[in-house]
Specification:
This protein is mostly helical and about 60 residues long. Helix content is about 80%, strand content about 0%. It has one domain. It is built from three helices and no strands.
């Protein structure tokens, strides 16, 4: 996956998150939980794209 595609997906996710936060009325607690969940999902996806998540699965503690 090219770096441009990754950047484009991050921008789209950010715009969608901004739209949801701006135009859908929610309680502030629910909004903050939603923001954290979206950020965690994007970070995990980025780790998978760059192959770091696969490396972390192979580490035995």
């Amino acid at each position: 996956m090219s770096l441009l595609t990754v950047l484009l997906i991050i921008i789209v996710a950010g715009v969608l998150l901004w739209l949801v936060n701006s135009y859908i009325p929610m309680d502030s607690k629910i909004k903050s939980i939603f923001n954290v969940v979206v950020v965690i999902i994007v970070v995990i996806w980025l780790l998978k794209v760059f192959g770091i998540f696969n490396f972390l699965k192979d580490v035995n503690i």
